[in-house]
């Protein structure tokens, strides 16, 4: 198959040998599990269970809210111990609503498995099943997968690209998944293909994973429309836009969806989760996590229940060799720094990387010498140095004009910068400030609307009051007239006529 | 009778025409910029700027008596918009938005007097006589008007907590 090139990119040290040959092991069920209600992009899920309730594995803990959201299920059987705020696996270290489960060690499922044939189901039924199982993008983006499957309603999708590049250093979870569960992954891929109605499937695997490549080729041998492709090892090959460009030669337009050019990308681990969700009705309650980094004694690939604390994974891997200088969730290029190892594993956690002081070697940023190394490295064709200098002095509009929104935050620029400038942090800072600005602007227009509506309401009330008063007055006058008429029935007709005319005049006012 | 009707009608018509002409001839030109600026302001007449209302603040902004940072609820984003419209270059990078706040009813001391929701410029307080009132957080602008009128001091201003959704990376601390 013909491959295409994308500009820029970097070649960081792979560091994959530490865990690549370690088979997937299941971590023993921990005593307590901490399941955050927000593990995905979109609205947080709303808890459905009460403290003290007995729950079974796979039971719905929190249901999704809104169009872009995902439910959360119980990773094991036990009791809901608490619903409280717990530190999120997020660099901010801020709390997030978390359902704490005390496991009973029995790991009893809520439903019995009755495998069904997914190819008898309609696309809608598949996406409903995937949505109900809480499947989200497992490469790290955690976008609800069902929403992506529904894109077929609005776009005509001809190609499904499966992202199995795993370009981040250290990570080997997708590699092991393909080596050990190739058949299941291919089944998941075919289910997604069926749901999307895509004519062909391209699976992109980086050439440093030859065993996975062979395994996948064998598993997909019976399906002509699935092409397993070896792509060169280059970071960021696993970026959606860049993988599409490599395997199809098509470029996703700036700020557009890949669906706009008829292509959808799903991660290989997502395909595995879809296989379990659709064929067996199993929700997403566990995932494979690579625990690695030079501060970990025995790097491993673990199948872990969602909600297991990072410290328990580390303990299973022999603990720390030395106190880690930096703890990451995800890969070292785009992963999130963790405030501490008491945070839980979530659906998007592909790896736990503990790096020693030696590896991190934080250096003071020096001034930009305009060497343009970042320009050469940027896979999106942007000018990181210009965007950073504008973000630095608060000129966010300027940064936007230089294409800030086209930046995928891959970190290639910061990786090559000889002055150690934290370029990506500048971009994240600028993007955050811009989002804040949008939020305040939205609030301002809402405030204006509310203020206007209040004025209109007061006006209406005033009018209604005046009307009511006029009505009362008219009624009283009528009563008086009636009384007068009753008292003096003998009086001339003319007076009565006057009274009635007075009444009509008043009625007119009230009208 | 007819003479009275005729004279009053002619008087009315004559004066009406006169007023009509006067309104056209003697019309006071308002600065269109003032109207435009007051369109941009929140319009809640909250008075946090020190002017009686948004219209007065707009006049002061146009005449240069007030800085573009005059409107606390508008914050930095409004200041930027105003500076752009008025053609003023100001360095707002150091302007700190006051931590956004919202009002909260302490239910233990609320007597249901209805005073607070009458002054709320955005109708963010719901309640009824002798019922505990509540603040709709999303609609509250943090203008504190309700706090001033509460007879039992049961309304408090609470800073809006940052969440994982609203947090973003700070500006890198190390000067590059």
Report a brief summary of the structure.
The complex is a heterodimer of chains A (about 500) and B (about 180). Chain A has about 500 residues and is an alpha/beta fold. Helix content of chain A is about 40%, strand content about 15%.
Explain the overall architecture:
The complex is a heterodimer of chains A (511) and B (176). Chain A is α/β, with parallel strands linked by helices. Among the domains of chain A are: 119-353, NADH-ubiquinone oxidoreductase 51kDa subunit (Rossmann fold); 373-433, no CATH class. Helix content of chain A is 38%, strand content 17%. Chain A is built from 16 helices and 17 strands. Chain B has 176 residues and is mostly helical. Among the domains of chain B are: 32-86, Electron transport complex subunit B, putative Fe-S cluster (3-methyladenine DNA Glycosylase II, Chain A, domain 3, Orthogonal Bundle); 101-159, Alpha-Beta Plaits (2-Layer Sandwich). In chain B, strands 1-4 form a two-stranded antiparallel sheet. Chain B has a two-stranded antiparallel ribbon with strand order 2-3. In chain B, helix 2 packs across helix 3. The longest helix of chain B has 24 residues, at 2-25. Chain B starts with a helix and ends in a 17-residue tail after the last strand. The model of chain B has no long low-confidence stretch (mean pLDDT 86). Chain A binds chain B through residues 38, 88, 90-92, 94, 96, 364-368, 388, 391-394, 419, 421-422, 425-426, 428-429, 431-433, 435-437, 439-441, 443-444, 446-448, 450-454, 457, and chain B through 42-45, 73-78, 80, 92-93, 97, 120-124, 138-139, 141, 162-164, 166-172, 174-176.
């Amino acid at each position: 198959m013909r491959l295409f090139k994308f500009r820029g990119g970097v070649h960081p040290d792979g560091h994959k040998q530490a865990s690549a040959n370690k088979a997937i092991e299941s971590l023993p069920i921990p005593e307590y599990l901490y399941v955050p209600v927000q593990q995905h992009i979109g609205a947080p899920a709303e808890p459905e269970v009460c403290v003290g309730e007995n729950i079974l594995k796979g039971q719905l803990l929190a249901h999704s809210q809104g169009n872009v959201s995902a439910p959360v299920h119980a990773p094991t059987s036990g009791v809901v111990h608490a619903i409280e705020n717990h530190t999120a696996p997020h660099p901010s270290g801020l709390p997030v609503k978390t359902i704490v489960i005390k496991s009973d060690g029995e790991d009893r499922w809520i439903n019995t498995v009755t495998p069904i044939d997914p190819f008898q189901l309609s696309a809608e039924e598949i996406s409903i099943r995937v949505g109900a199982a809480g499947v989200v993008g497992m490469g790290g983006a955690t976008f609800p997968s069902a929403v992506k499957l529904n894109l077929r309603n609005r776009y005509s999708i001809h190609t499904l690209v499966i992202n199995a590049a795993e370009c981040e250093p250290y990570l080997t979870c997708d590699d092991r998944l393909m080596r050990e569960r190739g058949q299941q992954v291919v089944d998941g891929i075919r289910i997604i293909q069926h749901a999307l109605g895509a004519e062909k499937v391209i699976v992109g695997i980086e050439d440093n994973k030859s065993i996975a490549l062979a395994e996948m080729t064998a598993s997909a041998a019976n399906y002509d429309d699935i092409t397993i492709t070896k792509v060169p090892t280059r970071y960021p090959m696993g970026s959606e836009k860049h993988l599409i460009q490599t395997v199809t030669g098509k470029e996703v337009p700036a700020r557009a969806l890949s669906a706009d050019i008829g292509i959808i990308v799903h991660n290989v681990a997502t395909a595995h989760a879809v296989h379990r969700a659709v064929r067996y009705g199993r929700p997403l309650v566990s995932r494979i996590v690579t625990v690695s980094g030079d501060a970990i004694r025995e790097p491993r690939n673990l199948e872990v229940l969602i909600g297991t604390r990072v410290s328990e994974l580390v303990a299973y891997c022999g603990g720390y060799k030395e106190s880690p200088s930096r703890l990451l969730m995800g890969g070292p290029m785009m992963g999130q720094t963790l405030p501490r190892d008491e945070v839980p594993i979530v659906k998007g956690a592909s790896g736990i990387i503990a790096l020693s002081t030696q590896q991190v070697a934080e250096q003071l940023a020096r001034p930009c010498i305009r060497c343009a190394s970042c320009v050469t490295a940027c896979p999106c064709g942007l000018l990181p140095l210009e965007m950073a200098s504008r973000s630095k002095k608060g000129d966010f509009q300027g940064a936007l004009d230089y294409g800030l929104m086209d930046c995928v935050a891959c970190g290639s620029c910061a990786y090559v910068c000889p002055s150690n400038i934290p370029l990506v942090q500048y971009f994240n800072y600028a993007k955050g400030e811009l989002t804040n600005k949008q939020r305040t602007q939205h609030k301002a227009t809402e405030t204006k609307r509310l203020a206007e509506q209040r004025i209109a309401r007061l006006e209406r009330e005033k009018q209604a009051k005046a009307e009511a008063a006029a009505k009362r007055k008219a009624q009283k006058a009528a009563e008086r007239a009636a009384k007068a008429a009753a008292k003096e029935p003998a009086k001339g007709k003319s007076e009565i006529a006057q009274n009635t005319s007075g009444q009509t005049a008043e009625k007119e006012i009230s009208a | 009778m007819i003479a009275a009707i005729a004279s009053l009608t002619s008087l009315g018509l004559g004066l009406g025409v006169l007023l009509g002409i006067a309104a056209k001839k003697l019309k006071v030109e308002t600065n269109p910029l003032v109207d435009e600026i007051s369109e941009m302001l929140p319009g809640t007449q909250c008075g946090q700027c020190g002017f009686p209302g948004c219209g007065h603040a707009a006049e002061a902004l146009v005449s240069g008596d007030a800085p573009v940072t005059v409107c606390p609820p508008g914050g930095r984003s409004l200041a930027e918009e105003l500076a752009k419209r008025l053609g003023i270059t100001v360095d707002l990078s150091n302007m700190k938005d006051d931590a956004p706040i919202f009002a909260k009813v302490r239910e233990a001391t609320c007597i249901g007097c209805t005073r607070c929701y009458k002054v709320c410029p955005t109708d963010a307080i719901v309640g009824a006589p002798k019922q505990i009132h509540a603040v709709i957080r999303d609609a509250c602008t943090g203008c504190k008007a309700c706090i001033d009128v509460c007879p039992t001091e049961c309304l408090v201003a609470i800073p809006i907590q940052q969440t994982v959704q609203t947090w973003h990376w700070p500006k890198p601390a190390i000067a590059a």
